[in-house]
From TrEMBL:
Tree of life domain: Bacteria
PROSITE patterns reported in the protein's UniProt record: VOC
CDD domains associated with the record: SgaA_N_like
Designated name of the protein: VOC family protein
Lineage of source species: Bacteria, Bacillati, Actinomycetota, Actinomycetes, Propionibacteriales
Residue ranges of domain VOC in the record: 12-123
Length: 254
């Protein structure tokens, strides 16, 4: 697959980054887990992570110490301010105001009505990450919600997604389509899942070549397991938390 040069369709997850107290330790941990190359950007406390020379995401220091350590999924937009207006109009809120990132693009962060935080990225010279299936790559992101219908309505209205509900018994799930392709999902949090285990948020899912081995490496590095490895239609998946309790998922595709 060639390197993409055009911005992603609006609503497509086009970047992820991790905000933590100790980004140096986090870069070492994720580099071991996924084989990432992590390079510090100038004098900022922000590292770009790549696989085979292609950017996957970033790891940086939290902007405020009292904020939780977390992964943020960024959604493509043609105009950050216009999207934030829609977020507010439909019950969400602004978490951080729009700002320029040099010539790379513009970003902001927001939260849906259930509290799940997500980012907005308006591409300049940097369109974001490639969507690939190689180990270490971001392959999917999904919004977790305790109010499935409200979350689905919010995202389809704000971003213009088409939603296709899939699955049978158990928590509900919808695939979100942008540009005629599935790009993300909305998942209902299981009502029996303790709030301390997994709260409303956007969950990034990274490819791995061995799910169970990845679980072992995360636990050995001070993280823990939210959901033990389980079979999906797309491969073997597990939901984890890193050493600073930031949730993410891994999947061996196939």
């Amino acid at each position: 697959m060639g390197e993409r040069t055009r911005p992603w369709p609006a609503g497509t997850p086009n970047w992820v980054d991790l905000s933590v107290d100790d980004p140096v330790a986090a870069t070492a941990s994720y580099a071991e887990l996924f084989g990432w190359t992590c390079v510090r950007r100038g004098t900022d406390e922000y590292w770009l992570s790549s696989v085979d020379g292609r950017d996957v995401g970033g790891i940086g220091a939290k902007r405020t110490r009292d904020a939780p350590s977390r992964w943020t999924t960024y959604l493509a937009t043609d105009q950050v301010e216009r999207t934030l207006d829609a977020v507010i109009a439909h019950g969400g809120r602004v978490v951080s105001e729009p700002r320029e990132v040099q010539e790379l693009g513009r970003l902001a962060t927001a939260a849906d009505p259930g509290g799940a935080v997500f980012g907005l990225w308006q591409a300049g010279e940097h369109i974001g990450t490639d969507r690939r299936t190689d180990p270490g790559s971001l392959v999917w992101s999904e919004a977790l919600s305790r109010d499935f219908e409200a979350a689905k309505a919010f995202y389809t209205t704000v971003f213009g997604y088409e939603a296709e509900e899939i699955g049978g018994d158990g928590p509900r799930y919808a695939a979100l389509y942008a540009g005629g392709r599935p790009v993300a999902g909305v998942a209902e949090l299981h009502p029996d899942l303790p709030a301390g285990k997994l709260s409303p948020q956007w969950l990034p899912i990274f490819a791995t070549d061995a799910t169970d081995a990845a679980v072992g490496r995360v636990c050995a590095g001070g993280g823990d397991v939210v959901c033990d490895p389980f079979a999906t239609d797309f491969g073997r998946m597990a939901i984890l938390r890193d050493a600073e309790s930031a949730p993410f998922a891994v999947i061996r595709l196939g």
